[in-house]
Amino acid sequence: QQGDLLQVLLGSNANCWGRQQPVHVPATPGSISLLNGLFSAEALGQLARQQDKADSDHGPLLFGIDVLATHATEIVSSPMVTAKEIKAMRKTEGWHIQVLEPQRIHDGAWQLVAGVEAAMGCLVGATAHVLLPGCPPSAPLMAKGDMLVCQTQGSTTWSVDQVASEFTLAEGDVLFVPRGCTCVWTAAATEGAKAGPASCLMLTTNAEATWGHLAQRVLQACTYSTSGEVGSPWPAQLLHSLPAGFLTHAGLLADLTNPKGSAAHGHLAASTLAGGLRALAASLETNSQLVAPAMDAMAAHFIRNRLPPHPAQLLEEGPEPALEDSLVCRGEGLFMLVPISGPEDPDAPDGYIVLTNPMRNLRQNHMKGDISEGEESDEQSDDEDDEHGCGGQGVCGHAHHNHTGVEAAGAEGEDVATGHGNGHGNGHGHGHGHADEKEDGDDSDDSDDSDDSDEPEVELPGEVLPAGYAPALAKVLAAGPSGPGVPVRELIRLVPHSERGEDEAMWLANVLWSLGFASTRLAPGSAKAYVAEDLKATKAGKAGKGSDAGARSVKKGRK
Fold first, then answer.
1. 3-class SS at 488?
2. What are the CA-CA distances from residue 93 to residues 32, 75, 244 (Å)?
3. CA distance readout (Å), 415 to 278, 463, 540
4. Can you spell out the DSSP letters for 200-257?
5. CB 54 within 8 A of CB 80
6. Which residues contact 141 (CB under 8 A, 6 or more apart)?
7. pLDDT (0 to 100) of residue 14
8. Strand partners, 146
């Protein structure tokens, strides 16, 4: 579980975020099992060999873009990171090799970073460092966010500017470095043995998740609201126009030609803004709803840009659910419900929500800036769907009927843009589809509509549903993988259209299952449960035979 991951890494210091002093967390059996060899000099060579293959998803690694390599006297001989180049570096002492954002290409780093993102609820950047013997101390590095240094091979010594003593990290150790601290590190001296390489993973958290960033989002949300109308979040002081010629007193020319006038205008601006912001602060204290759009915007940014979950972090979907079965969420910290505006619809009197999630995000795009899923090519989207057990037809291989009102919204370029829909056989449909997709040919009408507002359109990856389903969705998404699950029959009282509640509950259960969001817990004693148990026993037997054969093969090879 994601909460357990921070416990493994930090132990009793799992709540160290926000501290102003570094914290050294010694290795535990759990952190040693997790971190040892997760990234190493050998893993770097293996990664280079994998990227040499012509069918690599990422393509060749490039020095200066994917990998940085520094040496006091040597230079790299090829622009591409090849196994031959890495092998030559390992024969020469003194190299410091950095892999930038290794989670894009390295499976172990992907799983670790995705887990920390889910546990922290913020984007996490990563850098893998390999220090070969004889490597000089690093250049000073300032932590742009709260940083976790995870020692994965050998040992390194760290000095942090706020602490007089040094920290020596062994394999499995973790060092917490607060935001703003400057640190220098080097491979620790090895006594009584030949010096070997040292490797660590640096994880940067909360770089754009501060109270200051939230304040910035609040101001943006106020700006994009209809200023001047009743209910505008801006206080009256901030709605007044700037004086005539005010901006002509700004800039270097004004400072040089009329320094007193420029200074006076600067004081006027500062005083007026301070008064307006104090009034806005007073409004926030009495109306916390002013913060909600800003929090939604930050959450949307996180969802759009975070890593997709590693397959090992997801439960198996299980068989198609029946009314007597139960549902559990396939992963923790993956889903959010975000209200959106949409067309008026009698079947959706409460509006619409997006069940937003990162399941189709591309790991290759992680930490490349604010990338909307809508910018992917169709081929990339299909590949990601296949990876998560989804097909290319309809939504994840299931063709459904669009809700008429939502389909029209997508065609007109409204906020609810849906490429797919869902409905079931009794004749009523539901507005359900990817919030970031548009039907072919929709772009021609968007330009006229976009001129009416300066507010940027936020595209959320996920499925659009009537807001009436929110209570049932929340119930299922809160059912953690380790719990008993939510009986499908229990959803009957939570879904809209109570006159057909059983059909509604089954429709929603199948949507969540078919999209890969929920896993089925079979009802005890059902025929499917017996079949599942038999399959599980059969797989366990085959796995046992396979492991025995593998052990014999290893022993034979050693002999």
1. helix
2. 27, 13, 67
3. 33, 13, 49
4. EEEEEE-TT-SHHHHHHHHHHHHHHS-TTSTT-SS-GGGGSPPPTTGGGG-SHHHHHH
5. no
6. 182, 183, 184
7. 79
8. 205
Structure tokens at 321: 């659910």
β-strand partners of 157: 168, 186
Orientation angle between helical segments 83-90 and 41-52, nearest 10 degrees:
160
Model confidence over 524-534: pLDDT tens digits?
Answer: 876 555 455 55
Structure tokens at 233: 């979040």
User: Of 307 and 536, which is predicted with more confidence?
Assistant: 307
The answer to whether the CB of 381 falls within 8 A of the CB of 406 is no
What is the spatial distance between Cα 25 and Cα 173, in angstroms, rounded to a whole number? 6
Q: Using alpha carbons, select from 277, 283, 294, 146 the residue that is nearest to residue 214.
A: 294
Contacts of 91 (CB under 8 A, 6+ apart): none
Q: Which amino acid is at 123?
A: L
Q: Given the DSSP bridges, would you call strands 486-487 and 326-329 parallel, antiparallel or unpaired?
A: antiparallel
Structure tokens at 266: 């600067």
Q: Quick one: tokens of 554? A: 């290893």
The DSSP annotation for 315-368 comes to ----SPP-TTSEEEESSTT--EEEEE-----TT-TT-EEEEE-STT--GGGTTS
- Name the residue with higher pLDDT: 260 or 274: 274
Confidence check: pLDDT of 412 > 60: no
DSSP state of 79: S
pLDDT digits (tens, 9 = 90+) for 422-474: 344 333 344 444 444 443 444 444 444 444 444 444 467 788 888 999 999 99
Give 208's Cβ-side CA count (13 Å radius). Answer: 17
**101 three-state secondary structure:** coil
Burial class of residue 214, CB neighbours in 10 A (0-12, 13-18, 19+): middle
> In 3-state terms, what secondary structure has residue 68?
strand
